[in-house]
């Protein structure tokens, strides 16, 4: 099931292949990093539709991620991990025959073993902004970044030919801190099976239509989803829907002029400044009273015509890392739920 291949020298383009293409054996070859992408987008890539080039901001994010990979691996080494990073100029490629018609290929970032003991595992390095980093720590990679887990699973089978624990190492790009999560072998196996289930219909589509650029698979995502909004084939796939969606969004929101928005910022900053001083004075007074109450050794006292109470509250913390290691993603979903809301912050 697995083959490994040393990439040719001068392999600057090793990471820049299209997400899918037809190889010389007539197989559909999909990049491991895109294996759980929209199957219609993979079809567009394989059949030669031109993707929109990434804009400058997206390129900067991509290059930042690549530049920080060795930083994360060195940080792991300093903490006692045995790490074998990929050679940037001659990365070891893996090729995995996932379905009869679909091969997955890619280049693992590194392999390594944890401090003291352990089996050699694939290490998949990611960089995230602070909120995505926090979300990953809380929910675990299978829920927050299932694509990364699928990628690590594909590399694990491609390199070792079996399920093994896989390591996702993530750096918070704002704080420059890193953390890791071990995905146990049985969950690596399930991630591989999910990826196989995802790509099997695409292989069947290829078997029945051949490499026909006009025979498109169904869309996996809907206009307005983040997947479609960041898809390089959006203009080809959903030209009308995407514009319509943006228009609908605009008409649903109340109309606010730029002038009104500027006035709102000024009003917000003035209100915040007006609150700052009394809030500071309140905090200082409460700190004084807390120290006094503790010295008194009493929880309640009458003072200057007021009742002052020392209220003790207990906070409970969840060790998400241990929770994520113990429970699979489906069980975690029932325990750690997620709510999203929009708010505005003015700095
Ligand atoms: S625009 Fe959306 S549905 Fe169309 S190919 Fe891209 S991700 Fe898939």
Could you provide a short overview of the structure?
46% of the residues lie in helices and 18% in strands.
Explain the overall architecture.
The protein has 347 residues and is of the alpha+beta class. It folds into three domains: 2-215, Lambda Exonuclease, Chain A, CATH 3.90.320; 221-250, no CATH class; 258-295. The chain is 46% helix and 18% strand. It contains twelve helices and twelve strands. The protein has helices at residues 39-46, 56-78, 130-139, 141-144, 146-160, 185-209, 226-229, 234-237, 239-252, 258-296, 320-326, 329-335; strands at residues 2-6, 20-22, 28-31, 82-85, 92-97, 102-106, 110-113, 121-128, 166-172, 177-183, 300-303, 306-309. A five-stranded mixed β-sheet has the order 1-5-6-3-2. A five-stranded mixed β-sheet has the order 4-7-8-9-10, with helices on both faces. The chain has a two-stranded antiparallel ribbon with strand order 11-12. Helix 5 (146-160) crosses helix 6 (185-209). The chain starts with a strand and ends in a 12-residue tail after the last helix. The relative contact order is 0.12. It binds iron/sulfur cluster (SF4). Iron/sulfur cluster is lined by residues 38, 40-41, 219-221, 227-228, 231, 233-234, 237-238.
């Amino acid at each position: 099931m697995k083959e490994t291949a040393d990439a040719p020298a001068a392999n600057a383009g090793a990471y820049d292949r299209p997400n899918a293409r037809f190889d010389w054996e007539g197989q559909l070859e999909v990049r491991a990093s895109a294996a759980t992408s929209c199957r219609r987008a993979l079809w567009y890539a394989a059949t030669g539709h031109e993707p929109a080039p990434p804009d400058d901001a997206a390129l900067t994010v991509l290059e930042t991620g690549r530049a920080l990979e060795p930083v994360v691996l060195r940080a792991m080494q300093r903490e006692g991990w045995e790490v074998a990073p990929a050679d940037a100029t001659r990365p070891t490629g893996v090729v995995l025959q996932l379905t009869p018609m679909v091969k997955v290929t890619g280049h693992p970032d590194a392999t390594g073993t944890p401090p003291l003991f352990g089996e050699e595992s694939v290490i998949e390095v990611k960089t995230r902004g602070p909120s995505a980093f926090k979300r990953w720590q809380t929910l675990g990679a299978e829920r927050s970044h299932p694509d990364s887990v699928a990628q690590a699973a594909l590399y694990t089978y491609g390199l070792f030919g079996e399920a093994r624990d896989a390591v996702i190492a993530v750096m918070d790009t704002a704080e420059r801190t890193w953390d890791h999560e071990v995905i146990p072998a049985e969950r690596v196996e399930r991630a591989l099976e999910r990826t196989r289930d995802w790509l099997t219909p695409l292989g069947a589509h290829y078997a029945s239509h051949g490499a026909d650029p006009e025979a498109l698979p169904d869309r996996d995502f809907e206009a307005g989803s983040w997947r479609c909004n960041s898809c390089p084939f959006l203009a080809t796939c959903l030209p009308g829907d995407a514009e319509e969606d943006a228009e609908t969004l605009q008409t649903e929101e109340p109309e606010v002029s730029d002038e009104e928005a500027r006035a709102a910022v000024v009003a917000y900053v003035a209100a915040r400044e007006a609150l700052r001083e009394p809030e500071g004075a309140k905090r200082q007074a409460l700190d004084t009273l807390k120290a006094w109450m503790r010295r008194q050794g009493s929880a309640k006292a009458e003072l200057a015509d007021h009742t002052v109470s020392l209220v003790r509250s207990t906070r409970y913390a969840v060790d998400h890392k241990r929770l994520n290691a113990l429970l699979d993603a489906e069980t975690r979903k029932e325990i750690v739920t997620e709510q999203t809301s929009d708010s505005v912050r003015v700095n």
